Amino acid sequence: MTEEQKARAELKDQFFDVLQMLDGRDATCQLYGKHVMAVKFLAMQANGKHYIVEDLKTPAGTMEHAVLRTGDTMFLSFPLNNVAPEANSMEQ
């Protein structure tokens, strides 16, 4: 395995670690319809084309579960506080 392949594999592993850490976290997303919506992030496809949310709060009401396309998403943001609580416990 070349150094570039090793670096790509490491980045991919880190990306999946971040997705795992975000599972179940509250988030805010905006689709191209310009509505900012509150969601709870559940998962993302490995290829990054879709992500799954629950409690999608839209102007028309709340959807229990939804699959959204990343191509239709302007942004998906997460609060930075307490992103990795297990990291804090490791430091002590």
Quick take:
Helices cover 29% and strands 41% of the residues. The chain has two helices and five strands. This is Gem-associated protein 7.
Count of discrete alpha- or pi-helical segments spanning 4 or more residues: 2
Report the CATH C-level class: Mainly Beta
CATH topology: SH3 type barrels
Strand content: 35-45%
Number of strands: 5
Mean of pLDDT: 85
Largest sheet: 5 strands, antiparallel
Q: How does the overall form come out from the CA principal axes? A: elongated
Structurally, how many domains make up the residues? 1
CATH architecture: Roll
Q: Going across the biggest sheet, name each strand in turn.
A: 4-3-2-1-5
Low-confidence stretches: 88-92
Helix content: 25-40%
Distance between the termini: 37 Å
Structural class: alpha+beta
Gyration radius, to the nearest Å? Answer: 16 Å
Helix-strand string:
HEEEEEH
Organism: Panagrolaimus sp. JU765
Protein name: Gem-associated protein 7
